[in-house]
Amino acid sequence: MKKRFKQLRFLKNKVVLITGGDSGIGKALALEAARRGAIVIVVARDKKRLEKVANQCLILSGRPAFSYQLDVTDPDQIDAVLSQIQHEVGGIDALVNSAGLGDFSPATGESFATLKRMTDVNLLALMYISRCVARQMMDQGYGAIINLGSMAGKIPTPNSAAYSATKAGVNQFDNVLRMEVADYGVQVLTVNPGPIDTPFFEKADTQGKYRAHLPKWMFISPDKLAEQIWDNVGYKTREINLPGYVTCLSWVYGIIPGLGDWAIKKFFDFQQNKKEL
């Protein structure tokens, strides 16, 4: 079992399923997996973008690549697509849950529909897909489940209460799932990145206030992140938290939360945001 687990360090001919694989981190992970010779499967709602990514993967890997249209908030669709993948491609060796969305608004201003949508996509879908694929991996005796959390789940920032809550949930879900599947040779890797240079912020923060408070050097390249993630698959790595200085900040916040609240509000000029509201 351990020997088969270690084989995931080499993705050649391994079947990799990536949710949210049509853009952002998911796309970067798909292309990097293809460069390493994986058989890539991308799922998302945008059929045209999915097909384009799958074609890129085919060219990079020289191996089959697949795309399936999927709304991850629909459990019936999830069941149907996973069944189709099992029959058309085979067992999944590595799963990446990277589908996600955000809305950077004050908690008191969030609508129920927005709260539900974020929870459904960021947390509930991730838990359900992980649960379904984990069963198959336990039967085959190995596998890797990579779930995208966020440093927002460890360090609070103004106007991200709901988003941060979903990402904190990802961390705790993975902590328990990891214990449950470890004896079956299945790795559960939680990835908690800081700000990433993708279109995410343009969608989550339409006013651009969040990005405006962060210098360009703080943003992580999705391609570099993808490389680091795949470099840690097949090992005993539990979490990837980056950049490193943000990890240190999360430790400090846990020890001195009062000081952390003051520093975070000061950095994000939160008092000014409150006046504008």
TrEMBL record:
UniProt keywords, alphabetically: Oxidoreductase
Molecular function terms from GO: oxidoreductase activity
Domain (Ketoreductase): residue spans on this chain: 14-199
SMART domains xref list: PKS_KR (SM00822)
Matching InterPro entries: KR_dom, NAD(P)-bd_dom_sf, SDR_fam
One GO cellular component term noted in the UniProt record for this chain: membrane
Keyword field contains Oxidoreductase: yes
PANTHER family tied to this protein: DEHYDROGENASE/REDUCTASE SDR FAMILY MEMBER 7B, DEHYDROGENASE_REDUCTASE SDR FAMILY MEMBER 7B
Protein family according to the UniProt entry: Belongs to the short-chain dehydrogenases/reductases (SDR) family.
Name the record gives this protein: SDR family oxidoreductase
